[in-house]
Amino acid sequence: MKKLNIVLSAFRALQRNKMRSFLTMLGIIIGVGAVIAMLAIGQGAEISVKDQIAALGSNVLIILPGSQQQGGIRGGAGTMTTLTEEDAAAVARECPDVAYVSPGARANGQVIAGDMNWATSIEGGSADYLNIRQWALADGEFFSDADVKTAAKVCVLGKTVVDNLFPETSPIDQMIRIRNVPFKVIGVLLKKGQNAMGQDQDDVILAPYTTVLKRLSRFPFLRQILVSATSPNTMMQAQKQITELLRLRHKLVSNDADDFTIRNQTDIATMATATTEILTILLASIASVSLLVGGIGIMNIMLVSVTERTREIGIRMSIGARGKDILTQFLIEALVLSLLGGIIGILLGVTGSMIISKLAQWPTVITLFSIVLSFGFSFAIGIFFGYYPARKAAMLNPIDALRYE
């Protein structure tokens, strides 16, 4: 038989049982659609996490106090009181690969504005805080170096705080009370949204760190020091310079462990993206199970088809069809079922991803790789699960096939 006739014969055989052919393809359709949708969701989450980590700032290093140990009990990072204002000043002065430094202080409290109140966190920083975090102002101005030196009672509000304290008026030049300490609002931060941990970055009040230390927390040591390296390529060098400087300042000898911790933005990003990659693989693996089920369905229906068409196979062989012609015909039928199901599944997956993105407000990313991968799986499943029934048809004895009732 000519190859074209073999292909046409395969299509005619499938058209004779349209409903059965569609139900056979359904497993492949659902499997391919699910794989594409899951990969789109996973890759969208990965990009979202990267964007949120980038929102932490540019080339950021976070210096935290070390872990306090008492009687064999270790308190974890941040429990020691080792970071001082002088440490931050030394880092800014003596580390050539450091661009900006912002000493950090923190307090929590109930904030009152007129008859409105809101519980939030108060972050202390320097005038370089916005440069490090790459955060812009929506209105007003940021506090200056002079405000930091004089511990001025001025503050900048995040968007969430503004919405809850000043829902209908501008907060600029308004007075608020934090722990009964009056502060003047001089600026409003641009909305930034949630961070990679799901925390609302806009639910914050920024003030000079000296003001937070002296007026609110009354704690002489820094909670952290935010540092921005001069470029992404100098982050590791800047981290090394800071480590050497702080060990020298804290009089640590070679055998002493660091009494501080430096967290690298690159490390945070690597850890977060690794988590989303594992999640993407897990989701795709679960979805691909339905592809396997679809492949088994194709094998099952092709075996039924071989049994139903045994006499037809015998007649074809008796008029000159060779075994490889029969094998090719049944293999093409399996491939048509699989590939057609794959194409419909791709359309279903792309449409489903768009619907999920719109309804759930969840970012989805559909890539050419995921489409090619799904289509390739469809092809492989058609070959793998279609070969055994096709080979069984090709191996039939013509005489026995003609006698089959």
Distance between the termini: 25 Å
Report low-confidence residues grouped into runs of 5 or more: none
Output the structural class.
alpha+beta
Order of helices and strands: HHEEEHEEHEHEHEEEHEHEHHHHH
The helicity comes to 55-70%
- Tally of individual domains: 2
Gyration radius (Cα, Å) is 33 Å
Rough shape?
elongated
Tally of helical segments: 13
The mean pLDDT is 82
Structure report:
By secondary structure, this protein is an alpha+beta fold. It has 2 domains: 3-52 and 271-403, no CATH class; 100-226, no CATH class. It has helices at residues 3-15, 18-54, 85-94, 129-133, 145-149, 159-165, 209-217, 235-249, 265-308, 310-318, 323-360, 368-394, 398-403; strands spanning 60-65, 67-70, 73-77, 98-113, 116-125, 137-140, 154-157, 175-178, 181-189, 204-208, 224-229, 260-264. The chain has a 6-stranded mixed beta barrel with strand order 4-5-10-7-9-8. Strands 2-3 form a two-stranded antiparallel sheet. A hairpin with a 2-residue loop joins strand 8 and strand 9 (181-189).
